Amino acid sequence: MKHFQYFNLCSKTLAILTMLDSIKAAEPNNHAFLNPDKQVKDTPLSSLKLKNPSPILHSRKSAWDNAYIGLILGNTSGSTKHSSLERGNTFLNSQSSNLAFNGPEVEFAAGWGKTFDKYYLGLEAFYTLSNSKGKASQTVVDGITNSSNTLISTVRKKNTFGSAIRGGYTINRNGLVYGKLGVISTQFNIGITNRHTQDSSLNFAINSHPRLLGTLLAVGTEVQLTQRLLGRIEASHNQYNKKNFTDTPDNTKSRFNPYSNEIKVGLTWLLK
């Protein structure tokens, strides 16, 4: 009986040792299991890099987050309402005409902008050379003296400088739709001549070169053509302050109230 109990105890002990040995053999990496910190330390950093990094962490810089210079060509067409008031000894003669002008122009621009998510805000300065001009004439009969006078008006838009704020919205990272609000200063050449129609004698003449302040309103779109080259199309409206003229010897007062509309296309170069 004692021998049987001793044999049973030895069998159970052997079974336990065999099970423990099997568990040890089945462990894939006992060293790593007991020392997990060492496994991380021994791992090369290159193996920890993400194969597909997040686009948020590695987003491409927008083309409009840069300073730029530009060359822009366009055409300007405008009109000014010209009114003249001539005071004589016994009469008051008022004449009014619409004077249209039209012609090409070239613009040099420089600016800087920044995108905020898909929204854009920037500042632009520009200088424009223009060769738009116009001429109009009008004949008015004086009801008192039964004589007629011919009013000849000429205008030429010469150069403009100004600055504007650009605000817009980017489309698919390669396009921008924007609006522009700014202040401009334009030099005009203005000529006014009033002559008697019958004998062409001169009543009065005014020749002036005023620089008029105005406001600029524009809308446009810009697309990225290459990594550093952008193309632009823009339409703008310029409204100028009124200008009064006085010819003291003849006691004549004249007023110009010009505006202009412009269509422009151009290229801008990013200063990366």
Task: Please provide a written account of the structure.
A hairpin with a 4-residue loop joins strand 9 and strand 10 (252-270). The protein has 272 residues and is mostly beta strands. The protein has helices spanning 2-26, 30-34, 36-41, and strands spanning 67-87, 92-116, 119-141, 148-171, 175-196, 202-208, 211-224, 229-240, 243-247, 252-270. The chain has 2 domains: 2-48; 67-270, Porin (Beta Barrel). Strands 1-2-3-4-5-7-8-10 form an 8-stranded antiparallel β-barrel. The relative contact order is 0.16.
What keyword list fits this structure?
eight-stranded antiparallel beta barrel, 3 helices, Porin, mainly beta, 2 domains, 10 strands, single chain, 272 residues
Tell me what portion of residues adopts beta-strand conformation: over 45%
Largest beta sheet: what is the strand line-up? 1-2-3-4-5-7-8-10
The helix-and-strand class reads mainly beta
> Helix-strand pattern, N to C?
HHHEEEEEEEEEE
* Major sheet attributes: 8 strands, antiparallel, barrel
CATH architecture of the largest domain: Beta Barrel
Structural domain tally: 2
Apparent shape: rod-shaped
- Global mean pLDDT: 77
Give the number of helices.
3
Q: Tell me the total number of β-strands.
A: 10
Distance between the termini: 98 Å
Helix content: 10-25%
Q: Low-confidence stretches at least 5 residues in length (pLDDT < 50)?
A: 30-34, 50-59
CATH class bucket of the largest domain: Mainly Beta
* CATH topology descriptor of the largest domain: Porin
As a whole number of angstroms, the C-alpha radius of gyration is: 41 Å
